[in-house]
Amino acid sequence: MALIAILAGDGIGPEVTTQARRVLDALGLDHQFEDGLVGGAAYRALGHPLPPQTLELAHRADAILFGAVGDPEMDGLERTLRPEQAILGLRKALGLFANLRPATMFPGLEDASALRPEVARSIDMVIVRELTGDVYFGDKGRGHTKMGLREGHDMMRYDEAEVARIARVGFEMAKRRKKILTSVDKANVLETSQLWREIVNEVALDYPEVKLTHMYVDNAAMQLVRNPGAFDVVVTGNLFGDILSDQASMCVGSIGMLPSASLNEWTGTCGLYEPIHGSAPDIAGQGKANPCAAILSAAMLLRHSLSDEASAQRIEAAVIAAIGSGARTPDLGGSHSTTAMGDAVLAALQ
Ligand SMILES: NC(=O)c1ccc[n+]([C@@H]2O[C@H](COP(=O)([O-])OP(=O)(O)OC[C@H]3O[C@@H](n4cnc5c(N)ncnc54)[C@H](O)[C@@H]3O)[C@@H](O)[C@H]2O)c1
Ligand SMILES: CC(C)[C@H](C(=O)O)[C@@H](O)C(=O)O
Ligand SMILES: [Mg+2]
Asked: What is the pLDDT of residues 68-97, one digit of tens each?
C-alpha cells in the first residue's frame, strides 16, 4: 500500500486537488492518503510555508499530489516566508531536478486554443524543465551601488553534472517518442547557456537515434506559436522552462489543462505531481477553476511513482472522454463548475 501525501496549498489548490482525490478514490486502489499544510495556509496556521511536519510527510510519502501555493496578502513577507518558498523548498529538499510538462491537444479543445485550430491540432509535446538549479537557486541579494542606487541580483549558474542529468532525461524521453529533441537556451548571450549547449552535445553522443536541435529561447517562444506541432521533446533550464510551459498551455487551450511530474531521477521513485498553474487568486473560491491539470497530475503520479500505467491511462481516457462529451470549465469557454467538471471525469471513468 502506497502513501500519497496531499499538499493542497492556497487559492484554487484545494479546489482542484479535491477533484483529483475524488478520481483517485474512484479507482478503488489500495492507497493511503495523508494531508499536509503548505504555502500560505501553513504560514497562517504554523508560521512557516514549509513546516517541518510537512517536510517530514513529503519524505515519508511514496508520492506527493500538490495543488498550488501563493497568496497576494503575503507578497510583502520576506522572501524566505513567502508561500512560493514551499514549492521551491520541496523541489530542492527532495532533489526533484526533472520536471516533465506534457502539452497535448485533446480532441475537441481546438476552439479553446489561442492559436488557429489547424495550427493547434498537431500539438503533442513534452517540456523537460530543469527544476533545482539556474537563476532560481543561485546567490541572490539586494544592495546599493557606489552611487547609492538600490540594486538586486540573482546569479544564473549550472554545473556540467546538473546539465548532463537533465539532458539525459530529455534524450530518454525523446527516445520513447518521436526521437526529436530541441534544447532551448540563450547561448548567444549567456555563458551558462554556452556550457549547457556543450554538455547537451556531449550527452547526444550516447543517443545517435535522437535528432537534436539547439534553439535560442526567443526563437523557441516564436516557433511555439508559429508551428508548435514541430516540437516533440524540449529540454531547457528552470527559468526558460517555466515561461515556455505557461505559453504552451495556452496553445492547447488553457493553463488549467497542463499537469506536471517533478522527479528525482528518470525512473523516478520519489515524485511530486502538480498542475503547472498557480493559486489563481482572481478566481479562487468561485468554483471556476479547471481541475483537469490536477486530475492529469494524479495520472502522472500513478504512472511515474507507483508504476501503475493502467490506472494512469484510465484517468487520461476519462479526461479526454469528458472533454469529448462537451464538459468545459469557463477557461475552456464553458460553464461547468470545478465540481461539475470533476463529475464529468468521474462519469467517464471506465
Ligand atoms: N506551483 C505553484 O504552486 C505555482 C505556480 C504558478 C504560480 N504560483 C503562484 O500563484 C499565484 C498566482 O500567480 P499567477 O496569477 O501569476 O498565475 P496562476 O497560474 O495562478 O494564474 C494565471 C491565470 O490563469 C488562470 N488559471 C490558473 N489556473 C487555472 C485553472 N485551473 N482553471 C482556470 N483558470 C486558471 C488564473 O485565473 C489567472 O487568470 C502567485 O502567488 C504565484 O507565485 C504558484
Ligand atoms: C510558484 C513558482 C515558484 C513556480 C516556478 O516558477 O517554478 C511556478 O511558476 C511553477 O511553474 O511551478
Ligand atoms: Mg510557472
From this structure: 999 999 999 999 999 999 999 999 999 999
Pick the CATH number of 114-251 from 3.40.50.720, 1.10.10.10, 3.40.718.10, 3.90.230.10: 3.40.718.10
CATH superfamily for 1-96+283-350 is: Isopropylmalate Dehydrogenase (3.40.718.10)
Q: Which of 255, 329, 345 to mutate to test the pocket of ligand 1 (most atoms within 8 A of CB)?
A: 255
314 is in an annotated binding site: no
User: In terms of Cα–Cα distance, which of 254, 249, 286, 258 is closest to 15?
Assistant: 286
Same fold, 1-96+283-350 and 114-251: yes
The interface pTM score, or ipTM, of the predicted complex is 0.99
Indicate the top mutation candidate among 87, 243, 245 to test ligand 2's pocket, ranked by most ligand atoms within 8 A of CB.
87
Residue 268 has pLDDT above 70, yes or no: no
CA 282 to chain centre: 20
Where would I find the H helices in the chain?
13-26, 40-46, 52-60, 84-93, 117-120, 160-175, 191-204, 217-226, 238-251, 292-304, 309-324, 338-348
Q: Which grid cell sits at 7?
A: 499538499
Report domain extents, the chain: 1-96+283-350, 114-251
Query: Is 139 among the catalytic positions?
Result: no
What's the CA gap between 45 and 38, in Å, rounded? 10
Instruction: Tell me the pLDDT tens digit for each residue of 33-51.
Output: 999 999 999 999 999 999 9
At 270 the pLDDT is 79
Query: CA–CA separation, 207 vs 295, rounded Å?
Result: 33
